[in-house]
Here is the input.
Amino acid sequence: MLPDPRFVVAVAPIAVLLCCILFLGWRAPRAAALAWLLAVAGAYAAYGARAELIASACAKGLSLALLVMLIVWAAVFLYNLALDLGAVSVIAGALVGSTGDKLLLGLLLAWGFSGFMQGIAGFGVPVAVVAPLLLLAGYSPVSSVAMVMIGHSWAITFGSMGSSFIALGLVTGIDAADLGPPLALMFAVPIVCTGLSVAHIAGGWSGTGRAAPLVLVTSLLMGLVMWGLNEVGAAPISSMLPGLLGSLILFYAGRGARRAPPASGSRDLKRDDMSFAWAFLPYALLVILSLGAQAPLLKEAADPLRFALAFPEQRTSLGFVAAGQEAYAPIRLVGHPAPLLLLSALLSYLAYRSRGVWRTGAAQRAWVVTVRQTTGTTVGVSLMVMMAIVIADSGMAERLARGVALLGSIAYVLAAPFIGLIGAFITGSNTNSNVLFGPLQLFSAGALALSPLLVAAAQTMGGAIGSGVAPDKALIGVSVVEGKVSEGEVMRRVLPYGLLCVLLIGIEVLIISALGAP
Here is the structure.
């Protein structure tokens, strides 16, 4: 039997995107441009989407991309500013010399501190910052890169100030208040799994056994903080604060061991005129401002201070309806992470300047680096989001979901996190994976009568692990350890841990689904 032509048309943009990146070696923006053009052509020719509907879908995509990329730009800018001022080096130097217990130091750097760094910036920053520190701590180049790749992946969904999580909510229409708390509770499995994976890479089975009690207790506390922050609406800092908490627990757990002697090159991680407390100031301010922004009176008073576009209902000639939106992807002055990030940067500037530790031109240099780092991501995310919304609003995603539903509910529940993993592994981004496959997962959940919350959680948890162990992270790691190892060696070392984590996530989702949880 020949396949349904409309199903083939719906699959084509996603298949072409993945094949161009995986087999042809294209960069994400170039591949996304071709996939977007295919989606537009398919929607018009095979699904009866008029030019007005396609234009509306693309405008929605750009609105959503702007909301997400504002977070990315501001988060990466704050990190680059702290890096230029030497604050990141001061923090890292304090951690490297904190303990003589090599296993605990590995967990502290590759699992706790890397999660904290992911909460702030993402985009490979944890790998770039932490892999050299692990090398200084005495780990091999392969282990150094592999440990931080798997170690920071638990923090990716709520990392970069929640950009991946926010993108998932926008493309699926699921409210963050409904998805955040149960998703945070489900993250207990990947938090534990990534911690034990780091311990195994660092110390083998004996190291895993020795670290397991501490990893389990630390994971429990990190998970509770992640859940609590989502309960109060502070999802953008619900990787940063658990990562900070995990780092503190591991730091004090290692205090009983002999302090590590100064490592070769560790003097480069210090700045004589800046203490740890002053180095941490931008992130302390960010935490305070983020929590303060959740105050009910402030949120209510500032609710009108937002920007959003309205989109009318659209209908294809085949009868599929894309619902109208009165305020699509609103950007709020209070509640959106970007203003909080920029305010943290401004207050840090005032404090550093008053103390005499501000470096002239730091903000300009940080912005130049930020533009260079995020330009490709901005183009790629914008095109992928436009493609995804065209696929959703034209009825193509619904047709894909009916095809996927043939797998059956049990098989699909197990496969859902692997779909997220594949999207992130290929594109290098959980945000891209959520945008690409989020609508498909939602339609599939409806076709199989599964919980949309559960399937969305499976998508982004699998995407988080996939992004952590993706080839682009291996490339970053190899470059910062000065080419002492190849990408292939790193991928062979880390990929089994990533696949095992995603399998455990699938089993977790299957058990929750069997218990009938929403």
Q: What stands out?
A: The chain has a mean pLDDT of 86. Residues 193 and 501 are 6 Å apart (CA to CA).
